[in-house]
Amino acid sequence: MAKKKIGFQTDKMFFTGIQLALSDRNGAYYLSDDKKFEIFPSPLLSGGVEIGQRFPIGLGFRLELPAVLNIGSTWEDVPGSIALQDGTSQVLILKKMYITIGLTPQLQYVLPLDNKRMKCYVSAGGGVHYSVYSEDERIKEKPSIRIMDYNLEEARRVCGSADVGMGIDWVLSKRQAISLMYKLRYWKPVNYSTEKDLFPYSSVKYVESMFTNMLSIKFLVRLF
To answer: Half-sphere exposure of 72 toward its Cβ, with a 13 Å CA cutoff?
Structure first.
């Protein structure tokens, strides 16, 4: 009797990994009379960690359920020279910090390729994120000195995301594998109303939407 070939599967595996993300940001202030003023800040570079598990569904489909922590920041020049309380004028830089914690389930389809060691897949899904945004101002020539500015913003919100992607699993053994994945995400992690700085008399909503390119590498293990 001929022996059957045993295929290596990467379903039912737990995983942990790291990710690197680059986000194009599009900001908009929503003014009165349905007017919108758009700004285009510099791209945001961020990194994160993830942990989760895969669940087989059947017919080549599986569900990947990761929990993700992501942190990123940008430094931007404040226009002009700002007068400080000590009587000097300084050029300032503004640090914007983005921290998100989320669950990002992905429905994945494993392509039926005749290779037991390499598994290619496509994915689509979304996520729910708790987002924290904060600002910090420093003297440009002395970045260790923090400036107390009551116009700095801080905001928290829960937001959703939509993701599509593709990836490759390299099977190391029946219980171990490595996965490399690319994912494109659209989301709005910043959304708050402000009455500070340029808007002291009536609140104005500011929304920052992002297209995020993400690359992640994960180590997978089958525990049982």
So the answer is: 22
